[in-house]
């Protein structure tokens, strides 16, 4: 058996070594990473015509109607997203996550049930520890699964977000992501993050192509040693406007401010949905088990991406309205097996079936994004909640 990584200190070199060792020792992982090199990918340009999807007053110049009668789209090339045909991901996209199925299966993230060949690197979090594992069903050139060392449900809060940011800083070549228990996590009963190679998700790699509108800002960016770095108190919270409803971007120079900004979004969405605890702080939530949440759900639906670059944490939160789009259950030709989670929200849409990969068009992606997001009305209410001072716990106060 290969090296045991349990007590290795987590850093970029250790992750390199873990991949090398696991791809040598573990046939399933090797086979799936080899197959990934040949997966088909295509690029689609979406949101070229924003009029159809965005309300009046928010549309910038979209193009004039020329003599041909066709709209010229020169001024708005849209956003490039990718579609990946990845048959190995059927295990996740087709996963049953109803309470009965979850209860009856052995948890694949618990150490006792993991294959003996799967090794991991330990990481100390604020409240619990984690194990950094190679994901044997990759989407990214390098794909990690990072379960908590104890079997406890998938639920984001301020301490978990702190851990996510710490991991993003240590794993600086990766984007960290979190899928809520009802919108993408295939183990809603065992807390975990995932991470994938940077430069792969359009939202991270081409963030500037996504139009944002500032909601809150404090602090500035300063030029330090020829690099633009944020001041320690830098925070900007923006709405991503031209992609999907309910997507917010946080850029912050420190973790505390980032957590406070995220808490504002969480609190607002939690109050609207009647799910989760608006405090976002496990130290305040004492009786979470005894609370009855709407539809038995303990958290409003979120996907979260987080990465670190040049002194700045970037966090994108997606407030979801629905788990799976209508095409998931549609009959006949209208059927597309696509179950969107953080990776799809980041701009890489995974189709485990080749027929779907071949037929899917930009309009299908736009429809899927519109269906799984919150409505424009809920997005507006979240913004109002963010700007309402009463909704913020005192220790989370951001001026
Ligand atoms: Zn477990």
Overall number of strands: 15
Radius of gyration: 21 Å
Bound molecules: zinc ion
Roughly what percent helix?
25-40%
Strand order of the largest sheet: 3-4-5-7-6-13-14-12-11-8
Please identify which CATH superfamily we are dealing with.
ATP adenylyltransferase
What's the number of structural domains?
1
Strand content: 15-25%
* Assembly category: single chain
Order of helices and strands: HHEEHHEEEHEEHEEEEEHEEHEHHH
The pLDDT mean sits at 88
The geometry reads as: globular
Q: What is the CATH topology classification name?
A: HIT family, subunit A
Number of helices: 11
SSE class: alpha+beta
Briefly summarize what is shown.
By secondary structure, the chain is of the alpha+beta class.
Describe this structure in words.
With 399 residues, this protein is α+β, with helices and mostly antiparallel strands. Helices cover 26% and strands 22% of the residues. The protein is built from 11 helices and 15 strands. A 10-stranded antiparallel β-sheet has the order 3-4-5-7-6-13-14-12-11-8. The protein has a 3-stranded mixed β-sheet with strand order 1-2-15. The radius of gyration is 21 Å and the shape is globular. The site of zinc ion (ZN) has 5 residues, from loops.
